[in-house]
Specification:
Elements: H1 2-31, E1 44-51, H2 58-67, H3 78-82, H4 87-93, H5 103-108, E2 113-120, E3 133-137, H6 148-153, H7 156-159, E4 162-170, E5 177-178, E6 182-183, E7 199-200, H8 201-206, H9 228-239, E8 244-251, H10 258-261, H11 265-279, E9 284-287, E10 290-292, E11 302-307, H12 324-346, E12 351-356, H13 360-366, H14 369-372, E13 378-381, E14 391-395
Parallel strand pairs: 3-4, 4-8, 8-11, 11-12, 12-13
Antiparallel strand pairs: 1-2, 3-14, 4-5, 6-7, 9-10, 13-14
Helix pairs in contact: 1-4, 11-12
Family: Belongs to the glycosyl hydrolase 18 family.
Pfam family, one: Glyco_hydro_18
EC number: 3.2.1.14
Length: 396
């Protein structure tokens, strides 16, 4: 009889132990049934049903949600699989004592299903900043067209990101960037030599602006090495620190010799170096107390190549070649190489842009767009079929 009583007592004690173990394990399991909610935009929800033994703890799922990019918001059932943890880890987090459950009891215990709601918040995809390009005409210094000051007082400068100064010419003899001359183009637009030797150093950097004409109300001193439009551009950039200025080479009238400068490696190297010397390093020819080495340094942040048009259909008298399309790419590659080399020495990034036609046939004839976009910072697209646009449409 004593043996029977001892056996019954043992059964009762063992039942109580198994019951407490089940409560200690099942209670925290119930606590994880509430779904995880992350506040944010464009949330994508999915419901995942997994056995409790394979379920991830609530806190372990959070890092997987925040790290998911926007494209990966789709199959949410893959997320819990990355954060699988043993069931006893949940008990430890919930404050339950760590216990060893006999194998027989674990097999006999019911395996509940836990529903976990996972909310995925896609990361915002980066969007490039808007690029707004405006042109400043060289002859604005004469007051017939917009001046640099007009660009500021009209409020346009505050809306722009880049200003292109139009235009620089090509020396027909040396095939370099033409600087230091003041000679207007021929009056006849059908003259094939209309732009030969034309340039306006007086408007660029020699003309002294009065206080009334100047952007900041301060006249150009008579002995200052830099005056004219270039000094006004420098003042414009000081007033709008994010604004970048580029010298635009060519245009409708001054593209005659692009085919010649782009033809060989030697001509490309010489031409590019001359343009960087004049407009990036700022070594302008001295004349009437203006100019000199470094006098225009800091005015321009890069180069815009406006060849109208490689392969033909440009101004009457333009030189063309069968390899213009390929040579334009090589010319831009030379600009990129020399600008980057200079930038490595100065700790700056110098911009390179190119002007392209809106016409598909002209594009195919003269521009290898896939190669160009790997060389330039952005592309200016001809607007409404006009030459030397005053507003720039932009293709990133």
């Amino acid at each position: 009889m004593g043996a029977i009583m001892r056996g019954a007592f043992t059964v009762v004690v063992l039942s109580a132990v198994l019951s407490s173990l089940f409560v200690a394990w099942y209670g925290p399991a119930r606590a994880t049934e509430t779904g995880i909610t992350v506040l944010g935009q464009a949330q994508a929800r999915s419901r995942v049903v997994v056995p409790r033994a394979a379920a991830a703890p609530a806190r372990a799922a959070a890092p997987a949600q925040t790290a998911a990019p926007a494209q990966a918001a789709a199959p949410a059932q893959a997320a819990p699989a990355q954060a699988v943890a043993p069931a006893r880890a949940v008990s430890a987090q919930a404050g339950a004592p760590a216990r060893v459950v006999p194998a027989q009891a674990a097999a006999a215990a019911p395996v509940p299903e836990v529903t976990v709601t996972v909310t995925v918040t896609p990361s915002p995809s980066p969007s490039p900043g808007h690029i707004r390009v405006g042109y400043v005409p060289q002859r604005g210094a004469y007051g017939a067209t917009s001046t640099v000051r007009d660009l500021d007082t009209s409020g346009l400068a505050a809306r722009l990101t880049h200003v292109l100064y139009a235009f620089a010419n090509i020396d027909p003899g040396s095939l370099t960037c033409l600087t230091g001359v003041t000679r207007p183009p021929a009056p006849d637009p059908n003259d094939p030599d209309q732009g030969d030797g034309a340039g306006d150093a007086w408007a660029d950097y020699q003309r002294g602006f009065t206080a009334a004409e100047s952007l900041d109300g301060v006249a150009d001193p008579p002995d200052a090495p830099l005056a004219g439009n270039f000094n006004q551009l420098k003042k414009l950039k000081a007033r709008h620190p994010g604004l970048k200025a580029l010298i635009s080479i060519g245009g409708w009238t001054y593209s005659k010799y692009f085919s010649d400068v782009a033809r060989t490696a030697a001509t490309r190297q010489r031409f590019v170096k001359s343009c960087l010397d004049a407009y990036i390093r700022g070594d302008l020819p001295g004349a009437e107390g203006r100019g000199g080495p470094g006098s225009a340094a800091g005015v321009f942040d890069g180069i815009d190549v406006d060849w109208e048009w490689p392969g033909g259909e440009g101004h009457l008298g333009n030189h063309t070649g069968v390899d213009d399309r390929r040579n334009l790419t090589a010319l831009l590659a030379e600009f990129r190489a020399q600008l980057d080399a200079l930038g490595a020495a100065t700790g700056r990034h110098y911009l390179l842009t190119v002007y392209i036609p809106a016409d598909a046939d002209r594009m195919d004839a003269g521009f290898d767009l896939e190669k160009l976009v790997g060389l330039v910072d952005f592309v200016n697209v001809q607007r409404d079929g006009r030459h030397a646009v005053r507003e720039g449409a932009v293709l990133r």
